[in-house]
Amino acid sequence: MTADTSLTSYAFDLPDSLIAQAPAARRDASRLLVVDRRKGVAREARFTDLPDLLPKGALLVVNNSKVLPARLLTTKPTGGAVEFLLLTPLPLISPRPVESGDAPSSDAATGVWLEAEVEGLLRASKKPKPGAVIDFSEDLSLTVVERGDFGRSRVGLRWRGDLKAIFERLGHMPLPPYIHRPDSPEDRSRYQTLHARPDKQGSVAAPTAGLHFTPEVRQALAAKGFGWAEVSLHVGYGTFSPVRAADIRDHRMHAEFVEVPPETAEAVSLAKAEGRPVFAVGTTSARALEGAFKETGALGPFTGWTDIFIRPGHTFAVVDGMLTNFHLPGSSLVIMVAALAGKGVILDAYAHAVRERFRFFSYGDAMLIR
Q1: Sign of the four-CA dihedral 101, 103, 109, 113
Q2: Residues 103, 204: one domain?
Q3: Which end of the chain, N or C, is surrounded by fewer C-beta atoms within 10 Å?
Q4: Which strand (E) or helix (H) includes residue 100?
Q5: How far is CA 319 from CA 230, 285, 327, in A?
Q6: What is d(CA 122, CA 145) in angstroms, rounded to the nearest whole number?
Q7: Residue 295: Cβ within 10 Å count
Q8: Are 212 and 366 in contact (CB under 8 A)?
Q9: Is 150 left (phi over 0), alpha (psi -120 to 50) or beta?
Q10: 297 found inside a domain
């Protein structure tokens, strides 16, 4: 085990007071720490300065996945609390009709009952056993199929009607565990990028580097000739899972579903051919691009799963720079940005951010690595 592979070497002290519990008044009002990969911290700026800080001709690649209100709450007949967080991306759920003899009965029943086996995090005051049925409403229930580690479970969902509409009606926004408050109506819009697409509603965590963009910033970027391309990576709860291996080479990364459409692959290939830098907006965009290249060995379209773990020693095939938020100590995301900029550069930048009281994590400030 070396200094770059030891998990403890990615730790840093972070006061709780710097963990943002709510979004800034304006999306683009956040601070921006500019970091040069070779020289370290270059300057402090505002996010609205971004068009003046990017290299000429840069192509920005953003994640257009949308967050689903995927957290369901209910109580059992005995009064015990139950929480279920859907992990299977909604666009990947393949429903099938419930056989008539197995369909739930209801005086108000209209329409066809559907079912699908999905994965989720299931928490309850008393752990439900396989076969247990949990009702969330008259048109949605689940049956426990198999319990896994850390609350992860396979369950059979049964519903009547539009599943997305049911989650929009019943669900809560899956705020990260370090935000110590219930979700609010404001989070429905603010824990969501403005470029999120309704047909890509499959994430259980926001691609947070994209939260800072406003129409005004987009317009300023376009006016200066910067390119804009989109990928879809449905962010899973594994993004918050701690790295538990003392040697990071032993860490098994969670898999996430990625789509790199032909038009994005073409834009990236053209930028590379012309010598223009490709900037990933967020670690999820970087993972989508580098993961797609790892799976195919080329700068082309890709649709499928990737479990790529980007750590020091990784050779970046696509990404030249990154816009990202500040991440948890010892997390796979800190390790990823260290792979891009160098561990020493990143830890120095994080120390600067702590010293200057930047806001951390999902609703926090941003860093531009160039």
Answers
A1: negative
A2: no
A3: N
A4: none
A5: 14, 9, 19
A6: 11
A7: 17
A8: yes
A9: left
A10: yes
Taking the C-alpha atoms of residue 57 and residue 48, their distance in angstroms, rounded to an integer, is 18
Closest CA to 113 of 132, 136, 86, 141: 141
Per DSSP bridges, beta strands 96-97 and 140-147 are unpaired
What's phi and psi for 171, nearest 5 deg?
A: -80, 160
In whole angstroms, give the CA distance from residue 240 to residue 244: 12
Asked if residue 303 lies in contact with residue 264, where contact means CB atoms within 8 angstroms, the answer is no
Of 170, 198, 229, the one marking the end of a domain is: 170
Among 276, 286, 275, 301, which Cα is nearest to 226's? 276
Mean pLDDT by 10 residues, the chain (370 residues): 91 97 96 96 97 98 98 89 96 91 55 94 90 95 91 94 97 96 97 97 97 98 98 89 92 94 98 98 98 95 97 97 97 97 97 98 98
Give the C-alpha separation, 1 to 7, whole Å.
Answer: 10
The letter for the amino acid at 17 is: S
Strand residue runs (E) in 168-255: 201-203, 227-233
The span from the CA of 277 to the CA of 289, in Å, is 13
Contact present, 192 and 69 (Cβ < 8 Å): no
Residues 130 and 263 both lie in one domain? no
The single-letter DSSP state of residue 19 is: B
Q: How far apart are CA 211 and CA 24, in angstroms?
A: 10
Q: Within 13 Å, how many C-alpha atoms sit on residue 299's CB side?
A: 16
Q: Which of 170, 196, 212 is where one domain is finished?
A: 170
Instruction: Give the integer Cα–Cα distance in Å for 121 and 346.
Output: 32
Which residue is associated with the tokens 């590379």? 272
